[in-house]
Putative GntR family transcriptional regulator (Arthrobacter globiformis), 466 residues
Amino acid sequence: MARKSLVGVVADELLDRIISGEFPPGSSVPGELELSARHDVSRMTVREAMKTLEAQRILSVERGRGTFVNPLNRWSSLEAVLRAASEGQNGPAAAVQLIELRRMLETGACELAAQRITDDELDGLRNCVADMRKAHQANNVASFVAADLAFHDQILHASENVFVAVLFEPLHRVLEKGRTETSKVPDIQEHAIGHHQNIFEALAARDPRQARNAMDAHMQQTLDDLRSYVLEA
Amino acid sequence: MARKSLVGVVADELLDRIISGEFPPGSSVPGELELSARHDVSRMTVREAMKTLEAQRILSVERGRGTFVNPLNRWSSLEAVLRAASEGQNGPAAAVQLIELRRMLETGACELAAQRITDDELDGLRNCVADMRKAHQANNVASFVAADLAFHDQILHASENVFVAVLFEPLHRVLEKGRTETSKVPDIQEHAIGHHQNIFEALAARDPRQARNAMDAHMQQTLDDLRSYVLEA
DNA sequence: ATTTGTCAGATGTCAGACATCTTGCGTCTG
DNA sequence: CAGACGCAAGATGTCTGACATCTGACAAAT
């Protein structure tokens, strides 16, 4: 499944070589002709692969001079930075930093949502929590995770901030797997239900500070869960 | 200066047409041949322009079917989303949302930095505040803004979180102009110096909560400044 | 009615060519 | 000898035309 196009393959391999340190930031990557020979593709294919990396600000192309690797803090692709940061022994550290980032965005969005949430959205949240309870009693992990994600999505939407949603989207994909893992434990499910209930009540009261604190507690517990899993693995 | 390449022009124009609503999310954009005729460029140029938009998850290309516009919340380019959100009457609202986002990231980073900042980095912050004072007395707006930005950059770096830095970088560029405007007012400069001094002291005390509150107050003031400017304009 | 063949249209890839920009090196001049 | 000039090598930018492959729909055969 998902046979990748050649340009995708070339882009991935080149990014791998960059991340592995073969082409450190500031240095130049091989010319288009050399790369097309190495990967046995045409120059156009190499160019299109380069364009995708350039669009993510991983490469800077300078006409007549060559193509250069940007410093990591200029990259605009969370996924690429994640791949780079997860190299070697930094995997766990990167995971923790991701949770930290998620915590900033979710607590902030929750605080905003408390001031802007509509009654309809509150109803939606109430249903999400109810679904989580049902799924918990029915021992249905998939439904539980779905309701969990829907809850957070609803809050994100209620924050009425497009940019937060945009920044959060890539995180969503990355964190999805880990979430399904931790949610398998019944105890963690119960804790999560309690936290979500608290968040809901704070939002229903339209109290920004309380909403923020409730979400913060939830994030803190998620971080603790992750630490436990990383330690035991 | 900065004569853009053809593919940049084509990509910009196509993005403009998307943002203007000519191609709403879910719909398809014209085929490569049609676009190459419209813009009077070759098909390869159109393809490379498409590739840049695809890399930013603005477009989804499906072989044999066509190229489709993704919903706005899937876009991974803050700048593109900003352009889309600023259309029509939404300019001020988008600006406020940007500040809200910045607030989340900066307060979060500041809280983290309080736990991790080194003595050297504290010295750097002290120097930044001193530079702001000097620039204020010398009435040098450019130096003032530079020291201001350096201060925030230092905190971002001290947070030791790569992802926050990555997400913040595009914000940096967007907010730079507005910052130079508000910093022209002497009163605002004085307020800013006070806030930065408070932030520095909280970080020096390595007190996360206090650091967060200090940065939050600073962000709140920035938001108020912006509102005043938007109202009077 | 279901299957199969075919075709139009879209994207994917290739090859070769020419244009333009940057840089360094050699040469010509003062 | 120093500086200006010019030229060629190497890199990216663009164009042209062609062929390959995938998708979806319609028509023909079973």
Notes: The longest strand of chain B covers residues 59-62. Residues 5-7, 41-45, 48, 62-66 of chain B lie near DNA strand D (CB under 10 Å from a C1'). Chain B touches chain A at residues 5, 7, 44, 47-48, 51-56, 63, 72-78, 81-82, 85, 94, 97-98, 100-101, 103-105, 107-109, 112, 160-167, 169-170 (CB under 8 Å). Chain B has a mean pLDDT of 89.
